[in-house]
Q: What sequence folds into this?
């Protein structure tokens, strides 16, 4: 929500999450409540609740109807109504192309990772992808050392004065690749994850092991440039019409037999 | 029976073989070059300050 407000302040203002810590907590409490994500300490958040909760909060509650969503979820992640598949959602597994396009569009791009075994999952917000496709194969090979950048709420802060989050977001960097060096292979990731709690302990990091990126969900932000262009086009159209109006009237030939307008009526 | 390939090349006079060898090398080089593709950079990194 903070990202959306920051990239489109003219559109969102501070309606989504306010501008101070207390308002962030309040927005967070709303989003995890049963009518939204229905997050619980034991079960976490169900994947299929996330798109519905964000749609409800951003579009239905706050009226930001220019926001649109897209994403890729495995087909079997959907349940019965109201959590069946939204029309904008694609079945399948996240791709590097989706990440690149979504990042280039400036979307808020959320993705989930699935730990091996019974480890459950985790949701992250991506901030960048840096990948040199050395052989132009379209596959992120393990040896190409592609880097995915993201904000991890387990370790979100750039600084920890007094071992508490000090503000300023932090990008965590992970190693990203396509499984089995195949273009159809799932996206895999590993990274050094904060495993401690608060107060912050700089020693408490551990490698995740290989995790699978199993969903990706993008919130498209209205572009300020688009609004500026539309406004400019409307203005230009208005000026053109205003300036052409007398010329059109002058150029219009009088139809034979047509009644003449009384002069002085314009 | 007419000979083809290396067997045929072996029957060529020495002067012809001298011309054939560079041609074969050039063909191999072309084949290798067509296999090698340029790297593509796919980098999009958003402004960290937008995240909070």
A:
């Amino acid at each position: 929500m903070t990202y959306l407000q920051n990239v489109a302040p003219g559109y969102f203002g501070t309606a989504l999450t306010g501008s101070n810590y207390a308002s962030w907590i309040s927005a967070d409490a709303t989003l995890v409540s049963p009518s939204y994500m229905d997050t619980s300490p034991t079960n976490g958040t169900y994947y299929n609740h996330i798109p519905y909760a964000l749609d409800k909060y951003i579009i239905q509650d706050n009226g930001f109807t220019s926001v649109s969503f897209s994403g890729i979820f495995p087909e079997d992640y959907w349940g019965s109504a109201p959590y069946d598949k939204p029309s904008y959602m694609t079945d399948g597994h996240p791709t590097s192309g989706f990440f690149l396009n979504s990042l280039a569009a400036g979307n808020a791009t959320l993705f989930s990772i699935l730990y091996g075994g019974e480890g459950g999952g985790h949701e992250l917000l991506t901030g960048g992808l840096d990948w040199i496709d050395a052989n132009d194969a379209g596959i992120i090979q393990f040896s190409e050392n592609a880097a995915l950048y993201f904000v991890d709420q387990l370790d979100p802060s750039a600084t920890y004065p007094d071992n508490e989050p000090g503000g300023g977001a932090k990008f965590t960097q992970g190693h990203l690749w396509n499984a089995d060096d195949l273009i159809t292979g799932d996206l895999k990731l590993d990274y050094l994850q904060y495993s401690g709690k608060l107060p912050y302990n700089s020693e408490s990091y551990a490698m995740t092991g290989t995790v699978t990126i199993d969903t990706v969900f993008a919130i498209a932000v209205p572009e300020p440039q688009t609004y500026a262009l539309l406004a400019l086009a409307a203005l230009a159209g208005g000026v053109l019409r205003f300036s052409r109006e007398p010329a059109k009237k002058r150029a219009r030939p009088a139809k034979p037999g047509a009644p003449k307008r009384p002069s002085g009526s314009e | 029976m007419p000979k083809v390939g290396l067997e045929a090349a072996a029957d060529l006079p020495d002067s012809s073989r001298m011309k054939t060898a560079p041609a074969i090398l050039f063909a191999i080089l072309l084949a290798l070059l067509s296999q090698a593709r340029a790297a593509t950079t796919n980098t999009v990194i958003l402004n960290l300050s937008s995240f909070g």
Chain A has six helices and ten strands. Residues 87 and 115 of chain A are 28 Å apart (CA to CA). The interface with chain B takes residues 2-3, 6-7, 96, 100, 103-104, 106, 125, 127-137, 149, 151, 156, 167-169, 171 of chain A (CB under 8 Å). Residues 247-251, 261-266 of chain A have pLDDT under 50 and may be disordered.
